[in-house]
Amino acid sequence: MAIRKDGVDTYRKLLKAASEVFAEKGYRDTTVAEICRRAHSNVAAVNYHFDSKDELYIAVLKNAFGEALRVYPPDGGLPAEAPAEERLGALIHSVLHRILDDGRLGCAGQILLREMADPIETFRRVHEDIVRPLREIMLGIIRDLIGPDATEQQIVFCVMSVIHQCLAIGFRKGRGHLPSFLDSPQSTTETIDALAEHITLFSLAGLSAVREKIEAAFSS
Amino acid sequence: MAIRKDGVDTYRKLLKAASEVFAEKGYRDTTVAEICRRAHSNVAAVNYHFDSKDELYIAVLKNAFGEALRVYPPDGGLPAEAPAEERLGALIHSVLHRILDDGRLGCAGQILLREMADPIETFRRVHEDIVRPLREIMLGIIRDLIGPDATEQQIVFCVMSVIHQCLAIGFRKGRGHLPSFLDSPQSTTETIDALAEHITLFSLAGLSAVREKIEAAFSS
Amino acid sequence: MAIRKDGVDTYRKLLKAASEVFAEKGYRDTTVAEICRRAHSNVAAVNYHFDSKDELYIAVLKNAFGEALRVYPPDGGLPAEAPAEERLGALIHSVLHRILDDGRLGCAGQILLREMADPIETFRRVHEDIVRPLREIMLGIIRDLIGPDATEQQIVFCVMSVIHQCLAIGFRKGRGHLPSFLDSPQSTTETIDALAEHITLFSLAGLSAVREKIEAAFSS
Amino acid sequence: MAIRKDGVDTYRKLLKAASEVFAEKGYRDTTVAEICRRAHSNVAAVNYHFDSKDELYIAVLKNAFGEALRVYPPDGGLPAEAPAEERLGALIHSVLHRILDDGRLGCAGQILLREMADPIETFRRVHEDIVRPLREIMLGIIRDLIGPDATEQQIVFCVMSVIHQCLAIGFRKGRGHLPSFLDSPQSTTETIDALAEHITLFSLAGLSAVREKIEAAFSS
DNA sequence: AATGAATGAGCCTTCATTCAT
DNA sequence: GATGAATGAAGGCTCATTCAT
Fold this sequence. Notes:
4 copies of one chain form a homotetramer.
Chain A: H1 8-29, H2 32-38, H3 45-50, H4 53-71, H5 84-100, H6 102-105, H7 108-117, H8 124-146, H9 152-172, H10 180-183, H11 189-219
Helix pairs in contact in A: 1-2, 1-4, 1-7, 4-7, 5-7, 5-8, 5-9, 5-11, 7-9, 8-9, 9-11
The structure holds a DNA duplex.
């Protein structure tokens, strides 16, 4: 006769369970059976509420992205006119917290990272929606920092240098590859902040070096 | 005259085909059927030569690692007494070429990267054999560069900053996320060298900044 | 209206079909495909209801044993104080009917016999549960009949003599090795009863002879 | 370039290995790979020398039967005019040794028993050649012992009673179901002889009882 | 005579999905 | 809205057999 939880409830439980499992095992290793089990629901529930595993995954992605964006906006609350150095720091801070802050974001970070490392072909569109904006913001900041004479290649290289310092750390989380102070279930806010500070320091120095090189080339 | 190539040949063709498919699709999405099809061989061939899909994957991993290491040794041919700056440059150069140089290495880099992002549980041991040594070498160089007073955390952060600039780029290869000059089937040697140079420049500056901060803290 | 019989039905049909096929062909030669075909069901049905071929086989074994025991209790309804001669007759009667009475027991007997002749390693536990109790009961009766001075070896030999007269007949059923009056699909109750009577007569005489021999040895 | 063992050798080694494996695991659980492994030969050897697994099995059966018959002739070396009691004893003795005497017969007994319990359809003809003669001899002896007035059913029942006491024991050998004195790799000749003596004693008494019953029925 | 390589048919199982209630 | 049953496509693996040497 079933316990009526009035739709929305099961829907949310599925979304939550799916987020967890997708984060833990990735898209292909996740079975809808496991999701439903963890949601204390039944095998057919996913298809009932989301039509297919694919659609559920998209829903999870959108949810993860939306949530991440809401809690940690890429500008870190800074006005667009703030100095590029500060904007870079804020962005790095934001990205890191998206990934590492289990406390507030659940598994959103893990899923985003998985998507980044091994994007499911089918969901490229969603993927683009998520990654591209981040990239655009970053591009603007970098341009400001290394000056107008940089070549396209130099800009791309710099974006990569900065952004992957932030992203890559997530790949190792929860797999025992990291020193304990980074691999605890909830890396403390202090540690994340310390990492953000490091990356900012490191990157600003790197970017300065690139800028100097560019200017040296031009003045010669 | 065909059909009978007496062992070694089929073995190699399977290994090659498997490397390609594993690189393209990852472990789970790869079917032995596709591997065999691409090797112009029979479905049972994999089990005959490698006993199982798992063992084939391990063989691919070992082959990829071995080949990568042989062609691009981590020291880049430099003696251990060379200045740390040069050793860092050589290491970055070596890692990048391992990943990006399709021409010589086939898909070794892709596979190693996949393993890094999403290690298959079963093969963790192999994985450890591959990643740990790289990490150890990097650790030594970094220590030399940021000085003896660095905390453990600072060293780890720096290793990450450097190593992930190198590794992460591979995640995006062949997926249309990169500007054309980096995403061509064979990124030209020139481009790879340019990238290596960039990362070295960027990282040395970053490391210097970290060293200065450490020394400032100590002298105060 | 078909197709949807809501669980129990398909479960039973599978169990029935499996019992038949396992009885006819033995564990190894039975394919789940054939079972499902005969149950007018889908290949995946076995795994849905029983998880695996192995579990299905265990279920069949338990079912066969349970049914056999329920319909033909080993004491034949006799009180424990009845004379050993009568208890032997009742036991023989019960065992024979378990094996031969197709009408009521389906293929339970065949399967039990197959298990006896060629036990599948994996299912030894189940097998033990089935055979051991029978043996224990028989042991008690035999002891009563050949007297307290029998050696262990003599008891074992006698148990074998009796029990295998009962069991072995099943091996030949349905294979054209038996005269028609024993090999008809349903051996008539009369024939079975006649056989039971024969074995009882034969065995009691045999046991008497053993007892006499024992006593002669002692009195000398 | 191969070590030429001149045909016959490999042939024999295969036959021996096959006998062992078939005895241990039965026809269907035996793989030609295992046979060849145990014969220190290669996978193709079976098909080369015997054309197929089936033909190899037939060869094994014939070999086992021939050997068994040669070493233990069913008449036990007794002339046809010897008293039926003695001929029964000799036959029982012969059958038991065929089955139990590992020392001389290798696995012939096990295989014959397996064939008896679960005859492979394909090989029924061979099977008939082996079992029928034994049965005929037994029939003659039984007839002599229970007299000319026995019905067909009574004779069949008696044959079964006697023969299965002999055969059935083999089913349990090597499976831990038997007391140690019967389950040792080589049951000593003494034990086998003791068992033969028991079965003879038991059966003669049983047969006498049947005879008396028949005569009582007639004289009434 | 003998062998290692290669093959294809067949088996058990998994899984996303659909159906009937 | 929710569910357990049912399905079929597909995957990995085993194995007797055949091929080329």
